[in-house]
Amino acid sequence: MRILIVEDERSLREALVDLLTGRGFAVDAVADGLVGVERGTSGDVDLVLLDLALPRLDGVEACRRMRMARPALPILILTARGSEEDRVKGLQAGADDYLTKPFGSAELLARIDALRRRAAIAPSDAERVEIDGCVLDLGRCLAHRNGDALPLTAREVGILRWLHRHRARAVPRTELLQMIWGAPANAIDEIETRTVDMTIANLRQKIEREPAEPRIIVTVKGVGYAWGEQ
After folding, report:
1. Fewer CB under 10 Å: which end of the chain, C or N?
2. Strand order from edge to edge, sheet including 2-6
């Protein structure tokens, strides 16, 4: 299992690396939010330990972006911000758990074990999907069609992962807004649901053989969208 640590405090970052490598984990450690998102959205990271007070990109936004790109990635927030409001923000952004500094090694390891067990029984995210002549390399944020490599945004990858993971059913636009955009349920309106339609229209231009007759992302009238093949 490879764990990514996103922590700007050097002494804590190094202590976490020592602790986790000593327990047999493969560990990557970075010091700012933007690099954390880049590493966290790659396919070889299995769990993220994420600080909130980070340079360049704060932890809440970093968490939201990683969750959009990889819906099943376990994320554990480690922070000195212990208020209820901060906990709610972190969990709403997509964190699976929240641990307040200072914390003990035993509790951290127990929470990591709990997230590992949960991830083991959850549906896994596909990294490479072939459908209708298009190869979706989600781990690298690329689509391949007709010999061309087309870059995908983190949000587009998030949409594709979510639809593929829930391919047995139609996914409402409001669900995509909550899970991929991170929008609170009580803040969703008609304008935001049109944002989903616009994003998917742009995505279809990249990945569909005929965007006007989509076979990868199909529209379910009155509901939302569905994966094109079961």
Report:
1. C
2. 26-30, 2-6, 47-50, 75-79, 97-100
Tokens of 47: 């769990």
pTM over 0.90: no
Whole-angstrom distance, CA of residue 31 vs CA of residue 141: 23
CB count, 10 Å around CB of 32? Answer: 16
163: containing domain = 128-227
Mean of the pLDDT values across residues 128-153? 90
**Residues contacting 79, CB < 8 A, separation 6+:** 51, 52, 53, 59, 86, 90, 98, 99, 100, 101
CA 155 to chain centre: 9
The count of domains in the chain is 2
Task: Specify whether 9 is located in the same domain as 59.
Answer: yes
- The CA distance from 170 to 147, in Å, is 31
Is residue 63 located within the same domain as residue 156? no
